[in-house]
Design a protein that fits this description.
Length: 248
Amino acid sequence: MVSVVMPAYHCAKTIRKAIESALNQELNIELLVIDDCSDDGLDQICQDYPSVVYVRNQKNLGAAASRNRGIELAKGEYIAFLDADDWWEAGKLKKQLNRMRQTGCVLCCTARELVTPDGELTGRVIPVREIITYRQLLHQNSINCSSVLIRADVVKQYKMEHEDSHEDYILWLKILKRYQRACAVNEPLLKYRLSNTGKSGNKLKSAVMTFAVYRYAGYGIVRSIWYFCCYAVHGVWKYFRSHFGGIK
């Protein structure tokens, strides 16, 4: 069984598509929706899906702590993450499981297609290497959280921490530092909704948080600056590829 952990906060307008894309995977799915004190009728929507495990936080904890709660409750052999405003293509998890079995990797991600805030496909695809090493990940966070499938026994050893930075990036670094590499399916099996209000929407804020990632990962000022410069170069390169036809 694959446990899908979905943190949810004020997402009543988008969560149905996310839920249905998870439940329609051709696998035995446990879907845990962790409601972080929404007041937009999210609980009513979840009642329309009897198989969904609906959990409501007693107070607002944030996405990282909500994912941690979902990880603790998950019963599956594997855990997947899906944000409530994103969705998956059919067959995503099965392709990832096959890839993990082929490579022996404990973590698998996918490429993603960018979607407008209104849910319209843009045709802009962010590709991903089929093998991602720890060193490569230090230079660029190519692992999108909503695309991740990971062995439960591995991720349960860690927690998402430091929500003032990119907590998922810190987690992937910890895992790859121990397990050396992750694998990927280089197909846009994740539809990733763009947002101006999320952490990645404000590029300056995102940059500051990325620098914090390297500090939280235990690197000194000099090495943190070096890795941050690598991140910035990759960011500029990705921008030009996505806006001037390089990404197909």
